Amino acid sequence: MFQLLQPIWLWLTTGILVPVMIHLWNIRRGKTLRVGSIALLKAGGHRQSRRLRLTEPLRLLLRCLLIILAAVLLSRPVWQQRPRQKEKGWVLLPGERWQETYQHFQLSIDSLLQAGYALHYFNPGFRAAGLTATFYGNMEMDSTMSYWALLDSLQQMPGAPRSFFIFTPAWLHRFRGQRPAIDTGVHWYAYTPADSVATWPGNAYATPSGSIYAGRVSSRPGGNSYAWEILPFGAAPQPVDTTTMRITLFADALMQDALYLKAAITAIQQFTQHRLALQEVHQTTALPAQTDWLFWLSTQPLPRDVQARNTWRYDTGQVVNSASWIISGTAAPVPLYKRVQPPLTAAEAVPLWQDGFGNPILRQEKGPQTTQYHFASRLDPAWNELPWQADFPAMLLQLLFPDSNNVITGKDRRIIAAQQLQPDHTAGNMITRSRTAAITTDLSPFCWALLLLLFLIERLWAFRVKKLPADG
């Protein structure tokens, strides 16, 4: 279908009035006729020689076409054509677990194929597949890409049909990232695979008593569980961390903040049995040369000669009241009363905790030798409720030992809730989007070529026309 993206330029077609007027007012000189007597001249001959006549109509047509074509060219002409859909829709199965998925939904898939649906892989590229390959094992394909990312690219794929039936395992680790909008043309069916339970050794570390605190992780469709046991030294089946984490607390005027933090770290040590060496100092001259964690509970500048693998610092700047929450993602929201307006350079850091308005409260800034954590509040009940929260030690635990609760992606057996796979609704109406995007072809090159051709024809015509002498 022919379309103009900027049709306002069609007003230029009124310019064809100029060549029309020129041709209408072009009075041709009369011919000199030799006659034997002036009696043969009639009065009407003079009127006929001055009559307006349309001369060279073909040349006039060329000039009008040039103006019209120039107006169309400025209007950005395009040709849009929707691809023909030979298929009723697609049935998509993951190539890495093709056989198991097909056998689980065999009746539904066979009925869809008989109804005119085409079989495709639910993998990057979404290439066509055939049932003859299903019983020869699973295909070697990417089994790590997020299903959400695949669905988003599928719904934006030009030439794709309007209806999809997707059959996949329900593993939660495949639904990573932001959930895209799911329209009513997507029908998603997920199942719990046969290998729905996985168990593997977790972290293991030496305790102050000399024993080994070894963890074991179990993953099931309903969630993950962690079990710990105390083993004799050397009896753990996994590598054992025998290091001691050195933690330094510095506080000058904010002594009460250090007491709250010290109580939380002590609770972590008693619960996890990790080897922790906690040191509290109040003078910069007493700071150790090296430490694993430095909690700088002060508004003074951090000394340049301090070497710490991780540093917690208070932000300094404008203090604003904030009736909001501290949201960490791992604990319940904590009431927030005051915060410090972060500097403009804070956008370069990664926010770990945020308030209810999306402002960073704790942000991480990784460097070549140290990682800094900037806290835009205080460990003070007048600023927030962190000192009184039972989840505060758990929030600190995620910072001190970020790998303590990590789950191996290939062994995660948690499944997604069925409600997450349903189409989106807005004000009671389902969202519908067209996936069959029109194929747009720019016609500007063709218009330029035609314009140049007409201009050359008009110029050649002008040079080839022989003009009559002025006196006949």
From TrEMBL:
InterPro entries assigned to the protein according to its UniProt record, in alphabetical order: Aerotolerance_reg_N (IPR024163), Double_TM_dom (IPR011933)
Protein name stated in the entry: Putative membrane protein (TIGR02226 family)
Superkingdom to which the source organism belongs: Bacteria
Coiled-coil parts of chain: none
Keyword Transmembrane helix: yes
Keywords, alphabetical: Membrane, Transmembrane, Transmembrane helix
NCBIfam families reported for this sequence: two_anch
Pfam families per the UniProt record, alphabetical: BatA
Domain Aerotolerance regulator N-terminal: 1-77
Record field: transmembrane: 6-25, 60-79, 443-462
UniProt source species: Chitinophaga japonensis (Flexibacter japonensis)
